What does this fold into?
Amino acid sequence: MELIAKVSGESREQVRRYIRLTYLIPELLKFVDDTVLYDKISILTLGITTAVELSYLSKEEQKLLLFAIEYDKITPNYAQALKIRKLSEKNKLNYDVLKKY
It folds into this structure.
């Protein structure tokens, strides 16, 4: 990772974040890509650090989150992603809980 960071000009932590993003389902990763590539006002966005937190959710939980995002047309912010991850770690994440965020 150190070598990749040096060659790419990114920090070691940023390289770690990029690698962690590979744990996202493709539909959530697209929100991250769109955030970087397009107008952030007209589309749903998902920042890298927020996405990293969500990458720790199981694939099933990520699909549930995607459903909630598509239904409500809003993505979680970083603080919400932290809470969602903690709920996941306690096996307390479900759609009813996601509706609160």
